[in-house]
Amino acid sequence: MPSTRKKKEEPVENDDTTDGIDKETKKQPFVVKDPTQWLFIAKDEVIKPDPNTNPESIVCGLKHPRTGQRCLFLFSNEDKDIYEIVQFKEEFRSWFIGETVQHDGSLYITTPVDPVFLILPYLIQAAKSEKFMTLDQIVIDEDYPECRRLQSCCQPDHLENVSDVKGDDDFKAYRYNKDKALSWLKLKTENVCKVLEEKNVCVSGAKTSELVQSKATEEEYMRYAFGVVSDYLPTELTNLLREHLGLPVVAEKRPSDAKNPPSKRAKLEDITPNEDYSQNVKHEDKSKKGKASTAQKKLEKVDKSGMKSMMSFFSPKTKS
Model confidence over 207-249: pLDDT tens digits? Predict the structure, then answer.
């Protein structure tokens, strides 16, 4: 779903003699169009919903449930469906679109998102008052006014999985329930784990040099599924879900630890040999000399009396 953003049009001088030139100034306004496009990958139902309804799809910014930062989401089908817009970007990448080169080689992918994940932070915040509230009272944010669209794409029965409910079908009030939320998130994680195992997704980090993909264990699949689900959860809820799933915390090595190893001096002071390696060393017998050559034998017979050593020629002369 490429979108186009035009830059400000500026006239450019052109001295060529053609029709429409101002004969006095010999200048013709020439509009330079430099569009910027973005490449999207989306299903047809995302950009072409039911023609009997409002076909307009809207892209707006919402608060991400994990980071709290602004992220782009796409609403379609009269705000009944919501998709996250994920950017895939690599360095030194561009697109050839028609006869133009788009310098921004990013690729935007739309993925469906369960709106309950986006509403959870608002439910947790509203639960501090310990009161039952309606959905329009819970999902409200001055910094992200478009969050009101979440009320249309979230079914009331879906919120019953993470909150207590009061009222009838015409009027319902909600209050966040931590136990229900953890049970619902556990079921989500197990479903993701099941899909990963059925599709035989590599989650164990096989060695590419050996081109061998080892079969992942059930714990590895569950840990990977937990990572997928926790990408849409606040930090506090992520820790609670890990405990609820019974997953141990894995200590990850920091890159700085490899760059700054302990000092060698501290290591050498603690090292003591366990064996006496000097016993296996063969000492050279100085009494045994090799056979002298013929030239060396002749040199030994020469009378060296009165001869100066070679180093005497390089020593400083004495002053008289």
Answer: 544 445 567 888 999 999 999 999 999 999 999 999 999 998 8
20 phi, psi to nearest 5 deg: 90, 5
Radius of gyration of the chain from its Cα atoms, rounded to whole angstroms: 39
Query: Sheet harboring 58-63: ordered strands across?
Result: 39-41, 107-112, 81-88, 70-76, 58-63
> CA geometry: angle at 142 spanning 141 and 146, to 5°?
65
Residues near 293 by beta carbon (within 8 Å), at least 6 away in sequence: none
156 and 134 Cβ atoms separated by less than 8 Å:
no
Most confident of 75-89, 148-162, 229-243: 229-243
CA dist 217 and 207 (Å) reads 16
- Helical H segments across the chain, by residue range: 44-47, 115-126, 135-138, 150-153, 156-159, 178-198, 218-230, 235-245, 255-259, 264-270, 294-301
Q: Does residue 105 surpass a pLDDT of 70?
A: yes
| CA dist., res. 12 & res. 23, Å (int) | 17
* Residue 116 CB contacts under 8 Å (≥ 6 apart), including other chains: 154, 158, 159, 161, 162, 184
pTM beyond cutoff 0.70: no
Q: What is the DSSP string of 259-287?
A: HSPPPHHHHHHH---SS-GGGGPPPP-TT
Contact in structure between 141 and 110 (CB atoms under 8 Å): no
Compute the CA torsion angle 56, 60, 62, 64 (nearest 10 deg). Answer: 90
Nearest to 124 by CA among 1, 279, 236: 236
Backbone angles phi, psi at 202, to 5 degrees: -75, 115
- Please tell me whether residue 72 adopts helix, strand or coil conformation: strand
Greatest mean pLDDT range, 21-30, 235-244, 247-256:
235-244
* CA 161/CA 190 separation, integer angstroms: 16
